Automatic annotation (TrEMBL):
<dbReference type="InterPro" id="IPR017853">
    <property type="entry name" value="GH"/>
</dbReference>
<keyword id="KW-0732">Signal</keyword>
<feature type="signal peptide">
    <location>
        <begin position="1"/>
        <end position="25"/>
    </location>
</feature>
<dbReference type="InterPro" id="IPR013783">
    <property type="entry name" value="Ig-like_fold"/>
</dbReference>
<dbReference type="InterPro" id="IPR033803">
    <property type="entry name" value="CBD-like_Golvesin-Xly"/>
</dbReference>
<protein>
    <submittedName>
        <fullName>Family 10 glycosylhydrolase</fullName>
    </submittedName>
</protein>
<dbReference type="InterPro" id="IPR003790">
    <property type="entry name" value="GHL10"/>
</dbReference>
<dbReference type="Pfam" id="PF25275">
    <property type="entry name" value="Golvesin_C"/>
</dbReference>
<dbReference type="Pfam" id="PF02638">
    <property type="entry name" value="GHL10"/>
</dbReference>
<feature type="domain" description="Golvesin/Xly CBD-like">
    <location>
        <begin position="517"/>
        <end position="647"/>
    </location>
</feature>
<feature type="domain" description="Glycosyl hydrolase-like 10">
    <location>
        <begin position="41"/>
        <end position="360"/>
    </location>
</feature>
<dbReference type="InterPro" id="IPR052177">
    <property type="entry name" value="Divisome_Glycosyl_Hydrolase"/>
</dbReference>
Amino acid sequence: MTALLRTLMAALTAALVTLVVPAPAAVAAACQTDPATPKRQLRAMWISSVANIDWPSRTGLTAAAQQAEFRAWLDLAVAKRMNAVVVQIRPTADAFWPSSYEPWSQWLTGTQGGSPGYDPLAFMVSEAHARNLEFHAWFNPYRIANHDDPAKLVSTHPARKNPSWRFAYGGKLYYNPGIPAVRAFIEDAIMDAVSKYDVDGVHLDDYFYPYPVSGESIPDSATYAQYGGSFGNVADWRRENVNLLIRELDQRIHAAKPHVSFGISPFGIWRNSGTDPLGSRTSGLQSYDAIYADSRTWVKQGWVDYISPQIYWHLGFSTAAYEVLTAWWSDVVKGTGVQLVIGQAAYRAGASGQDAAWQDPAELSDHLHDNRQHPEIVGDVYFSAKDVKADRIGAITRLVNAHYTRPALLPARGTAAAPAAPVITAATQGSGGVQLTWTGSGTAYAVYRVAGTPSAADPCFFADARNLVGTTRAKTFTDTTASGTNTYFVTALTRTHQESAPSAGRTAGSPGGAFSVILDNAAAGFTASGNWGTSAYSNQLYGADYRFADPVAASDPAWYAATIPSAGSYRVEVWYPANAGYNSATPFIVAASGGNQTVSVDQRSGGGAWRVLGTYTLNAGTYNVVGVSRWTSATGYVIADAVRITKV
């Protein structure tokens, strides 16, 4: 009851409202949600490196130029309110990191084996995480080269040192999937990146056995004779070779790092219903038969965390209609725990030579409207980054305006426990927006904004993304779009996106948009020496705890720094717990424009509420504005808890 009364007092006397609600996930089902603002949705784009499709834009760029280009791709993803990128780091049996297994990629410098002068993968992961974008490392498993001349490979290339591991087909070189040593090597090469770097996901594309070339046969009869004895035909053996790679990678990835997501983006058609009653109502190439990719089994066996079929066809397409395949894949994943993310053909939208449907700016947006009919679909990934940027016929802009008006949390994976709710320590209304700081134990955080000062926290505030203003891996956030009075909540997220209950609400602003900031002793701007202890003894405290120190005849103040938006008059208030044993003459220092002003406060009484020190002229800028000094002849602890500064 005491805590409740303290909360109500704060709500009535301060620009602060404390509202406690259940965990968002627990109440979402009871709320009326807006399908246009889903709370959770994976939104990503593929960033292709092979043939310099997206990044780097060409070989031979300096390290600084490469880095600038990559940052621009990430900034594009953020601008489109995406929350992940899928980056190709092993395009042709090579590496975008210093690998002990394979040479540096030629797509970096133009010369296979040539160092770019920095570690691109470390750089890319760091930059993505700085923007709270998930980084999914994209590997092509079997492709060695887009030519069939082994002599063009660097002399140290494993495919040159082990000629029996490779074959040529269709003018390209491939690793032979039927050789166990090859499979182990590919897995080792992938795991080298997984073990050394803080990637969020491992991603394979649709290239397994080569796509068929007319008049050619895959030259693996000798390998089949050696290793395929238990199989009645070569097709089943080839599918099992791919299955083994998928199953073993799944096991190895999660054994090394359980939080890393494993996903595959297969060709959009598994089999046609005319061939197999389990197949889709389509009549296109069957990946099960043509490239030996049994993608349906991967899902049913739970060997992947997500499946991202490339449904690169338009709505109503006679051979393979988009809406037919989204329904089929939704049925495949249902009940499996595997997440369904649709691969979208951004490269077709508005491109010359494409069907008339792709000249309609609404086509891609209509795909996402279709997705809403299938709760199994948890997001989309777009091929590729340059097409997202090109935004031909405004197709991407239309999609973003219809479906990505709010940020979105990533879908949760696994069963990890949610973290504890964060504690907001400051909410600063300034000329640049509202700056929040908090404490918490999450990997990332979500910030929600609710207009006004509601008397109670409606759990439906958190059921969709209407009130979600951003996510971050930091413990600070500036809401640059705020106006008027708003109440903020912060939740903490695990590495696999389980969400905590919301923090207590904090209100910032006023109907007139005046500046007001509350600084707790846990705020980032609070500083104190090691002579100041921490306590939560008194039930009159503000926030989670407060600071205390013995009086001493020396200068050792605890300071509260704030960003004062403009010079002018400001009311300064303090909050402290009172106790008969505390100091009767605690000196509070205000750094006024004409010099420091000191006010003595009797902290034996009047606690648990805001107490006005006075109104002072303050300079603009970020500096130590209010201090609590230990320099007093009175006995008893001096207390530093919270400060409120309001422009008047």
